[in-house]
Specification:
The protein has about 240 residues and is an alpha/beta fold. It has one domain: Spore Coat Polysaccharide Biosynthesis Protein SpsA, Chain A (Alpha-Beta Complex). The chain contains 8 helices and 13 strands. Strands 1, 4, 5, 6, 8, 9, 10, 11 and 12 form a 9-stranded mixed sheet that branches. A two-stranded antiparallel ribbon has the order 2-3. It has a two-stranded antiparallel ribbon with strand order 7-13. A hairpin with a 5-residue loop joins strand 9 and strand 10. The radius of gyration is 17 Å and the shape is globular.
């Protein structure tokens, strides 16, 4: 059985948090003296994942030199999304296909700060395909919302879901099986074949697989420390939790 790999998506500009990202990628912002990426890589290593790919774009040389200096022992590969200005997370994830090559993997949004127990809980789940879900959160148009059935199986995921229909927010950390990953990358390639889809999020591909009967389940991480950093307010929240 293939060992689990990690994919970190860190290609974006982080325009909504400027000027903090004028001269550095968002994943290299510091909280309590530790960058978002350093915290993430330390948790990944502690949970026994030792093959990692980081999809980079904006100011990617900074990320590459930081990782090589801080984690020289880690097996980290970098894939550059040269179209980071015109694409989104779906395109970035698609670029990791050759690295994954049929292995199970955990995918991280590069701007999510989380305590290690979040990843441990995800890895411990017996389900093959899982999304980390936080239920104790105010949902509005910005959050990636999730609808579950009575078996804890995800039947919808996306930003456009009505908050009243959703159980909570998908935090941007998922576990995908090797079999499902092969289908997922095929779906992403099909989506990105159209210029109209270049700005699509990877959740659009999850949705397509769900409608085809592929099972995705929720891992409830409510109560554990985490936050996604999109805005200056988010960064302040992250400082309150992790600073």
């Amino acid at each position: 059985m293939s060992s689990t790999k990690a994919v970190i998506l860190s290609a974006g500009v982080g325009s909504r948090i400027r000027p903090l990202t004028d001269n550095r990628p968002k994943t290299l912002l510091s909280l309590g003296g530790i960058t978002i990426l350093e915290r993430m890589l330390a948790s990944i290593r502690a949970c026994g994942i030792d093959e990692i790919v980081v999809v980079v774009g904006y100011l990617h040389e900074q990320i590459e030199s930081f990782v090589r200096e801080k984690f020289p022992e880690l097996n980290v590969r970098f894939i550059v999304n040269n179209r980071y200005n015109e694409t989104n997370t779906g395109y970035s994830l698609m670029l990791a296909e050759d690295f994954i090559a049929g292995s199970p993997f955990v995918k991280f949004d590069g701007d999510v700060v989380f305590e290690e127990e979040v990843l441990r809980r995800l890895m411990a789940s017996s389900e093959e395909n899982c999304l980390c879900i936080n239920q104790n959160i105010q949902l509005d148009s910005e959050e990636v919302k999730v609808v579950l059935d009575s078996e804890n199986r995800i039947i919808q995921v996306g930003k456009e879901i009505a908050p009243t229909d959703a159980i909570g927010e998908s935090i941007g950390i998922e576990k995908i099986s090797g079999y499902t990953g092969t289908l997922l990358f095929a779906e992403l390639r099909a989506m990105m074949g159209s210029e109209n889809n270049l700005q699509e999020y990877y959740e659009g591909a999850y949705e397509r697989l769900i409608t085809r009967g592929i099972a995705f389940h929720a891992v409830d991480i409510t109560g554990l420390g985490w936050t996604e950093i999109d805005t200056r307010d988010d960064f302040k929240t992250a400082e309150d939790i992790f600073g």
